[in-house]
Amino acid sequence: MIKYGVLAGGLIAIFIVAFYVFGYEPTSLELTKSENLFDKNITKLNQTGKTDPNAIVTINGEKVPVDKNGNFYWVIDLKNGKNIINVTAKAPFKSKNQTYAIVNRAEDKDGVTGDWDWNNTYET
């Protein structure tokens, strides 16, 4: 009888760990586009967004601080040309969610321009 209790407890523990790691629904992830995305010379992107509280967010592989409401902010250096900004979020008991933004920075004799576009998030 005891061995069945241990077996059942072990299976429940495995289920809880699997549910925590793989999750049931995707972590919410939203990038914000605002008027203040770029600095004056479009050399830096001031990316903000929102996710689930307690989520772990990475931008281009770097862990980003998330506040208790799920808001995050990160400054990204931009190079001339196409810049791809990869963002992932993973909250406890939810699956990982990813999105990306593309920033095109062009510098020529007429000055500097910048364009920001993003895709829809997708669950992994």
Characterise the protein shown here:
- This protein has one helix spanning 2-22, and strands spanning 29-32, 44-51, 56-59, 62-64, 71-77, 81-90, 97-108, 111-118, 122-123.
- By secondary structure, the protein is an alpha+beta fold.
- Strands 3, 4, 6, 7, 8 and 9 form a six-stranded antiparallel β-sheet that branches.
- It starts with a helix and ends with a strand.
- InterPro entries: Ig-like_fold (IPR013783).
Rg is: 20 Å
Give the termini distance in whole angstroms. 40 Å
Mean pLDDT score: 85
Order of helices and strands: HEEEEEEEEE
Shape assignment? elongated
Helix content: 10-25%
Biggest β-sheet: count, sense, barrel? 6 strands, antiparallel
Number of helices: 1
Give the helix/strand class. alpha+beta
Regions with little confidence, pLDDT below 50 for 5+ residues: none
For the secondary structure, the number of strands is 9
Transmembrane segments: 6-24
Keywords: Membrane, Transmembrane, Transmembrane helix
Question: What is the structure about, briefly put?
Answer:
The chain has 124 residues and is an alpha+beta fold. The chain is built from 1 helix and 9 strands, in the order αβββββββββ.
